[in-house]
């Protein structure tokens, strides 16, 4: 196991995007002493030279073998008032809680092997040969909490996922080849449907032409590789979770409210945050076809 005495042992829970946003703070923390990470997504830290060890939260004997031998830290940005008042980006909040310095909004870091890069490059080249002249775009219309309802409609209690009619309009009326990374399948002639490992998704993001995403893991993965693209924000705020390289799309004038999903006693008020009307969808499709991803807000 190695000697963990004196190391920081940091638990980062939550989804892939949230874990990715913790990476810069953990790397900065590693300048003080060795950092071991407990997480549900150890793939995020593979080949990262600044992280000493990574342990899956599903591993047995974490307390006996790891936690009690180090300085245990469990940062929770969602309880930070600077985060829930849209002053801190999620990366800044992690940095503030772990190092005392919020810093500026950078991007997460992911490290690929040469084999992973070669696999993704080959995958993209094959798609471009099958669909000459098309951009190959990673697409995430639905978040991890989305479910298929009656009649094929999507339901998402966090209001981050696109309605099925909006996803349909994008796929049918834009000129790109999409690789669907959501768990909900999409049956369109221009949508590639395949299951990928998380490391494969990282490599594909590094080699795609651009990304179109909701506020979920793809937006953070794409930012890690400097990708441009377009990100939809429904029940969440771009101040907390977006990046300068993305064009933000949210409903203008919609009275959005912070979604305090880790607090009790809140009222859910964001049901229509992504219920775009026909005119709004026409503008979105125009932006995607023109690849007009200059940071702006529709």
| Sheet of most strands | 6 strands, parallel
Radius of gyration: 20 Å
Helical/strand content category: alpha/beta
The DSSP helix count reads 10
Fraction of residues in H or I helices: 25-40%
Briefly note the CATH topology name of the largest domain. Rossmann fold
Mean pLDDT: 93
Q: What is the H-and-E element order?
A: EHEEHEHHHEEEHEEHEHEHEH
Widest β-sheet, arrangement of strands: 9-8-5-10-11-12
Can you describe this structure?
It is a single chain. With 298 residues, the chain is an alpha/beta fold. It folds into 2 domains: 8-99, no CATH class; 115-290, 3-Layer(aba) Sandwich (Rossmann fold). The chain is built from 10 helices and 12 strands. The strands form 3 sheets. It has a 6-stranded parallel β-sheet. A 4-stranded parallel β-sheet has the order 3-2-1-4, covered by helices on one side. It has a two-stranded antiparallel ribbon with strand order 6-7. Strand 6 (147-148) and strand 7 form a beta hairpin. The mean pLDDT is 93.
